[in-house]
Amino acid sequence: MLTLDRVCFYYKKGEPVLENLSFTVQAGEYAAIVGPNGCGKSTLAKLMDGLLLPKEGHVRLEHLDTSRPAELAQIRGRIGFVFQNPEDQFITTTVMDEVLFGLENIRVPREEMAGRALEALRAVQMEEHAEAMPHQLSGGQKQRVAIAAILAMRPEIIIFDEATSMLDPLGRKQVLDIMRSLHRAGMTIIHITHHMEEALEAKRILLLHEGRLAYDGDPFRFFDELPVADYHLELPFSVRVHQKLRLEAPFHADWKEAVRTQWPIS
Ligand SMILES: Nc1ncnc2c1ncn2[C@@H]1O[C@H](COP(=O)(O)OP(=O)(O)OP(=O)(O)O)[C@@H](O)[C@H]1O
């Protein structure tokens, strides 16, 4: 359970980015965090992972608190972070080394390392590329390697911060499929995204607006009841079709009635 308790954050005093933010993400949840550009989504993600510390309030993973230096490393070990640009994370020369590097950092016993790395590469269908150079892979493959490097460390929560935004449709689909299957396997997924189609995948949507939570709940109610355009967000295609059909439903009802009166079944 990851809890934000009255979190306030600013980069520059007097210019708050997040104000008095409180919510809890339960183990096994799949939550999307959405909001207009610059509303503080990435800042929130970094606070959740302990990359940034709140100016006021607390971020806790169960009883561990990011503001206690002795507990921060434990929290960071239990939460994985996938960035927008996987290349920012690559520092070694092969895919396998990239995954092993993370394991070395968290001091996994040497005899366990190769097995864990292979298992993680298999989970993202990249084991055949273990000896490839990361920089020669496609965008989607690079992001899958970045995910494997995180998976090998066996986190409980993975935060995807705009992790699909640089990918082509196929790469995006592959990463979304991985997120879905990780969620099915019990992993807690926090997905920060601009893409409302992707947000629809989540079971819960949190909308950030002007440093506060403007919505926290079901994705269907979110798209149905909220003036989504007011937040500079686009409705997913499927929701637009659904709303259009619903608007036209009276016409269809009349049409059926007209058919029934014109050609009554005797
Ligand atoms: N390192 C930084 N130093 C100073 N200000 C920053 C820094 N990082 C972000 N900001 C500012 O904090 C605010 C929130 O930024 P953040 O990147 O968290 O928003 P976001 O919702 O993720 O944006 P986007 O959707 O454009 O990625 C913005 O006004 C941004 O300019």
Describe the overall structure.
By secondary structure, the protein is α/β, with parallel strands linked by helices. It has helices at 41-48, 69-78, 95-105, 110-123, 139-152, 169-184, 196-199, 219-225, 237-262; strands at 2-12, 15-25, 30-34, 56-61, 64-65, 79-82, 157-161, 188-192, 204-209, 212-217. It has two domains: 2-233, Rossmann fold; 236-266. It contains nine helices and ten strands. Helix 3 crosses helix 4 (110-123). It is globular and about 80 Å long. The termini are far apart. The model has no long low-confidence stretch (mean pLDDT 89). Adenosine-5'-triphosphate (ATP) binds at residues 11, 17, 35, 37-43.
List keywords for this structure.
single chain; 266 residues; alpha/beta; Rossmann fold; 6-stranded mixed beta sheet; 4-stranded antiparallel beta sheet; 23% strand
